[in-house]
Design brief:
This protein is α/β, with parallel strands linked by helices. The chain has one domain: Rossmann fold (3-Layer(aba) Sandwich), CATH 3.40.50.150. The strands form 2 sheets. The chain has a 7-stranded mixed β-sheet with strand order 3-2-1-4-5-10-9. It has a 3-stranded antiparallel β-sheet with strand order 6-7-8. Helix 5 packs parallel to helix 7. The two termini are 29 Å apart.
Length: 235
């Protein structure tokens, strides 16, 4: 995918989250069901977390509620409104050392350093271009400390009719890749978002790009219990 198209698709989503940030914060405060299994798979104490596309910080809340020991949490997102919500939410957790910074993670702007746990939730479907998604996963693996974990979840929206019914036709002037879709938003203000459906073949490619070992792979979340496909990897 060329850089101009990538930038255009990313801007669609930046605009989308600017419009919907308040609704997202109000409706997305609970932990994902799949995180419980994730946490159970971690067989070493976690002292540092990089949350890529952290949104309003709800994964940090989940970790803080499950970990009594001090935890360093680095959250990065490209939406300043959601980061402000995260700051407010996490201010009362004394055992969390929190750093929240604005990065255009979709375009590969990620902080340096190594972390014992790197997580990517609700993000990979917003990264435009197959080659870029592979490169993105490779970069994430490079942020994992030896013996640490990389966990990502792919939103399998296209498998459910209610999301297929939200697909909007692309502008004919835009050349996108297979499984790239434009979805409408049906809560609050009208907005559109770019989403890519990661099928099983591509999911395998993304795992391969990390060079890490698969610890667990499962489906969870949503009313059907299978809306996201999770992969837990160890370096």
């Amino acid at each position: 995918m060329d850089e101009q198209t990538r930038a255009h698709l990313n801007q669609i989503n930046r605009d989308f989250y600017t419009v919907t940030a308040k609704e997202f914060d109000a409706t997305r405060g609970r932990a994902w069901a799949g995180w419980e299994r994730l946490y159970a798979e971690l067989d070493t104490p976690i002292g540092s977390v990089l949350d890529v596309g952290c949104g309003n910080g709800r994964f940090a809340v989940f970790m803080a509620d499950n970990e009594d020991a001090p935890l360093t949490y680095r959250g990065v997102d490209n939406n300043p409104k959601l980061l402000d919500f995260a700051r407010d939410t996490l201010a009362d957790y004394d055992h969390l050392t929190v750093e929240l910074t604005e990065h255009d993670v979709i375009m590969g702007d990620l902080p340096a350093g190594e972390f014992e746990l790197v997580v990517l939730f609700g993000v990979i479907h917003h990264v435009p271009g197959f080659a870029q998604r592979r490169a993105f996963m490779e970069t994430l693996a490079n942020r994992v400390a030896d013996g640490g974990y990389l966990v990502f979840a792919a939103w399998r929206f296209y498998e459910q009719e209610r999301f297929r019914n939200r697909i909007v036709a692309w502008d004919d002037s835009l050349t996108v890749e297979r499984h790239d879709y434009l979805l409408d938003w049906r809560r609050g203000d009208h907005a559109l978002r770019y989403c890519h459906y990661v099928d099983d073949a591509e999911h395998a490619d993304l795992i391969d790009a990390t060079g890490c070992t698969v610890i667990a792979d499962y489906r969870a979340d949503g009313s059907t219990g299978d809306l996201n496909r999770y992969t837990i990897l160890r370096k």
